[in-house]
Amino acid sequence: MLDQIKIVLCHTSHPGNIGAAARAMKTMGLYQLVLVNPKDFPCEEALVRSSGALDILDSALVVETVEEAIKDCKLVIGTSSRNRALPWPLIEPREMAQLIDTKPESHPVAILFGRESVGLLNEELQLCHYHVNIPANPDYMSLNLASAVQIISYELRLKHLTQNPITEAPLELKDSELVATSEQVEGLYQHLEQTMVKTEFFDPENPKLLSARIRRLFAKSQLNQGEVNILRGFLSSIEKYIKRKTK
Question: Which of 15, 74, 101, 239 has the most CB atoms around its CB within 10 Å?
C-alpha cells in the first residue's frame, strides 16, 4: 500500500519544510514525493532538514501544476482545515488510511498538502475525491507542514502494519537477565534474614510479619538472576563491614 501513495506538496515556500517532510515520509516508509512549483528547490536547507532522507529528495518529482502531479492517480485526497462553502466528503486521517487500504483498485493515490500560509486553494481541493482533516485544537490549528505530513504518514504506516506485522527474532537473554529460580530467590531470603539478624533489624524470637512482607515485596518484582546477585553482593558487603567494626 505504501508504495502506491504519493505525497504532493503544493507551492511550498520554505525549502526546510520540504526536507522535513521527506524525513517524515522516510521514517514511515513512504518514498514518492512530488513537488508542485516549489519556491526554492533543490536547496541546501532542504538537504539539511531531511536528516539523511536524501534518497527521497533525489527522486522527488518537480512539476508545474497539481493536475500534472495527480494525472496518473485514481484516488486524490486533499488536506484541509477550513470549512468550505461547498460541502465535500470529509474524513479524518485514520479513516483515510482505512479507505486507501480497502480500495486497492483506486491505487495509485495522491495526498495533497497546500501552501504553508493558506493551504490548498478551493480550485485544488475540487480536484480531490475526499478532504482529510487533522482534528487539531480548534483554538489553534496552525499545524506545521512537515508535522501534518508526519501525522498522515504515521496513520498510513499504522494501517500498513496491521496487514503486514513486523516479526523480529527473539532476543537472546544473558544469564543475568533470566528470571531467578525459586532456589536462587530462597537463597536471597535466607541471606537477607541472616544479615538483618546481625544488624539487629530482625528479631527471630519476635518475627511478626516482617519475613512475609519482604517475600511479598520481592515477589512483586519477579527478580532476575542479575538482581539477585546484586542484592546478595550488597548483603555480603554489609557483613564484611560488620566484621571489620567488631574486630
Answer: 15
